[in-house]
Amino acid sequence: MNLRLWAVFDYPCQQTKVSVPKTLSFEKIMSRIVSLPIVVALLLVLVLRARSFADEPKEESPRITPLVKVIQRIEPSLVALFTPAKGQFVGGSGTIIHPSGYVLTNHHVLPSVTGYALLHKSRPIRFRVIGRLPEKDLAVVQLEHRGQLPVVSLGRSHDILLGEPIVIGGNPGGRGIVFTSGIISSRSFLAGGPNALAIANYENTRYDNFIQFDAASNRGNSGGPLVNMEGKLIGVVSALIEGEQNSNLAIPIDRVRELFHQIVPTELYRGLRTGVHLKPFAKAATIEAIDDNSAATEASLQVGDVIKSVNGTVVRHRPDWSLALFSHLNKKGPLKIKIVRGDEEREVTLTAHDWPLQAGVEREELKPGLSYKFYHGKYSLLPDFSKLTPVREETVDRVNLDKIRKDRKDEFTLTLDGLIKIPTDGIYRLIVVSDDGSRVKLHGRTIINNDGNHPKKEASRRVRLAAGLHPIEIQYFEGNGNELLHLAVEQPNGKIGEVPAEWFFH
Fold first, then answer.
1. Which of 82, 170, 210, 497 is the most buried (most CB within 10 A)?
2. Fold (topology level) of 370-505
3. Catalytic one among 108, 145, 486, 506?
């Protein structure tokens, strides 16, 4: 029991005022009482005991339902976020997923890279954004907090049940953490897509599904947790369906698990490689693959090893691995990694390798623009272009679908080839938006795969590039309906825009 009690008693010609801070337990309160005059102490004991019996239902009380227990468990791990933008604060929500103060949230609630957070029974503390994946609307922030914080454990979303009870917590309207409950309404909802009849006619669909739930959710809840009755995080609240009641959407937690290394790409940002790849859905931080001739092979790590900690930071799963690297990976020294191999626990030392920038190529007699080949045909996936004969081969100044397709609206595919001129050394994020499928290759290697029948869908990839010319190929197909192909870039300074014509050569 936690209380704040002000007791004022008339006692032999004086007043005795006893302040009981909010954070003291009943036992600590009693230890302070024993130092008081006996009459005052007895009166305080009676008051506190009465309050204890009246205010705290017993564990077996019907008031302590499974829902109440889950809310009590997760409340300390929920965060109200406030990010400055245009002279005001944008409200959002988040969930602490790592004891060191790393919070999972939505990209769209973070218009800037710093802000303030309110935790359970705390004063505002600052946070900073450490990673984003905008097209998936996911981000991670780090709280400026000392000490360990309670977390919500990551669950799985592959086996959620229609009708199973859930609870969400968030910061609607910037009012602080509020809880609502409901059920899972749909395990797989396509946001922004056509109707179910149209989707049923698609082949090889490749789109992001969402969890639909009916618990009340309003603006400001975005980024908060969708939690099952085991108290595990199974989704990230992200949107509501306009014009409908009790129709809200969450990003499945399995997508977070799968893409976490892209949300927080520590190795890419630090320019260091470990050569370690973990299983995304395993119950532990189990190594799935090891790069050849890598730091991991030098450290004698093996597929199947379970990572338990990095430099003393506990690692429970793949997201923890990325966050541990964020805390400890640098050029100052090696990593001390504790692993379990079979029944044996051991410690290995890993010294990460440098990750150099991708060098450009030398070309002479360049012409501006890209060359393209245009093909007719009905496709549900990008074809093997080596087996096709183009109906047209021309050039275009940039990625401009209207100029390429001319009057053809449906059932076609194309390739664009050339060189992209990178102005300065740095980390670039190439972004492709398409309806239907697309793919981007750099130096002959696929870096973005956005293939399949789908409505407008964005995909991106961060790459370390040196200034200069880099071979690029863009592939695209259109089935029917809307047609769209757009190539953009986020530069090292954060500026985002269409790749300009002056960057392309052939």
1. 170
2. Jelly Rolls (2.60.120)
3. 108
